[in-house]
Amino acid sequence: ADVWHEASERRAGRDPSEQEAEAVVRPYLRQAAGTVQARLMQLHAARLRTQEAGPAAALVRRYHTLMALRRVVHEMRVIHRRLLSLYPAVTEQLIEEIRLLVGEGERLLDDPAADDEPFFIRRGLVFTGHLLRELG
Questions:
Q1: What torsion, rounded to 10 degrees, do the Cα atoms 37, 42, 44, 50 define?
Q2: For a pLDDT cut of 90, what percent of the chain falls above it?
Q3: Are 71 and 39 in contact (CB under 8 A)?
Q4: Residue 47: which of 121, 107, 123 has the closest Cα?
Q5: Which range, of 10-19, 40-49, 69-78, 94-103, averages the lowest pLDDT?
Q6: Among 26, 30, 101, 112, which residue's Cβ finds the most Cβ atoms within 10 Å?
Q7: How confident is the model at residue 11 (pLDDT cuts 50, 70, 90)?
């Protein structure tokens, strides 16, 4: 019941939770979007490097990839939380997209056999572009 009430309050332009000031959130989100873009590009570049020096090098590369992915997912969680402070000034679709991306990233971290990383990277890059456009 509380979740439904809070959602209806937000749709009416009132937020029952504590919000950060827009003057603080917008610059942070711009910076965070750039950070996420850079890390996603690093992940993309790492996927393009196919020459391995052996199994040990592949393990090290996988470790670095997982650590970079963990940092991206963490930053996306923070972006999601801070975007909620801007609602309804930002679209529900933007908030929902980052929520879905966080879930997808967590699934990639939890399932080492998952091979959806290229799709996650593309969606993340598209999202950060949308976020930057929406922030102005």
A1: 180
A2: 57
A3: yes
A4: 121
A5: 10-19
A6: 101
A7: confident
Neighbours of 76 (CB within 10 A): 23
Cis before 55 (ω within 30):
no
Examine the pLDDT at 38 and tell me if it is beyond 90. yes
Structure tokens at 40: 């996603």
CA distances from 5 to 8, 16, 21 (A): 5, 9, 23
Q: Are 81 and 18 in contact (CB under 8 A)?
A: no
- Residue 113: the pLDDT is 77
Interacting residues of 40 by C-beta distance below 8 A, sequence separation 6+: 72, 121, 124, 125, 128
pTM for the structure as a whole: 0.81
Locate 3 and state its tokens: 């979740």
The Cα–Cα gap between 45 and 40 comes to: 9
